[in-house]
What does this fold into?
Amino acid sequence: MRRLQWLAVILVIVSWFAESCQHTPFNFGELLISENCSPDTAYFVNEAFPIINSNCAMSGCHDAITHEEGVNLSSWDAIMNSDVVKPGNANGSKLIEVLTESGEEAMPPDGPLSSEQIDVLKLWINQGALNNECLDGNCDTTSVHFGSTIDPLINIYCEGCHSGSSPSGGINLTTYSNIADFAASGQLLGAVEHSAGYEPMPPGSSLTNCKTDQIRIWIENGYPND
Ligand code: HEC
It folds into this structure.
């Protein structure tokens, strides 16, 4: 009987360790998914990759086919294998170096990223450059505002392409009035909902249902600048 009790205790401990291992953050290679999005975390899939993808991994630059200078930034594995990111050390990472310096090597060649975008990448690297994603567990559709919901969403997922001197499709989405114009024309919702007749945005992927809902709700509310 005693033995059985010990066995039970040991089994509980072993399974507890096995369980906690599954949640170890340094699980390189596998995608770490959190149910809720913590505002203090920069997630690769949600935040860092959209910036890298739309500013660096375009065709002709650091994509899987061209990989200029041997640097391929088209996925988490490719980024980690390119040696441009030192997990935990943003300031020692080549990626941040080329994004923050001026002169010949400065990237992207057509102008610097915003300081908010660089801060997201730095935070992601300093938090271990994990292959992580958060789901929409705490995505809020009850209080949707331009300043706190829509503007940050477009900044992260769209402005990489839709800003600067030659924005994609000639469409600039950096200010309220630009964004409101596309809300009014139906193109903003059509593009993110992948409706027939519109170019699906972001290209090659889609916003989560909750984020698409946030855009729809804001537009249904009359796209206020609130
Ligand atoms: C990787 C670059 C890239 C990203 C990221 C991106 N776009 Fe685009 N977008 C484009 C290009 C290129 C076009 C022009 C497509 C065409 O006309 O063939 C375009 C076109 C559009 C259009 C016009 C669509 C139409 O059919 O009228 C809208 C609206 C738009 N984008 C909104 C967005 C929004 C909103 C996001 C973020 C959720 C986004 N885009 C993210 C590259 C991008």
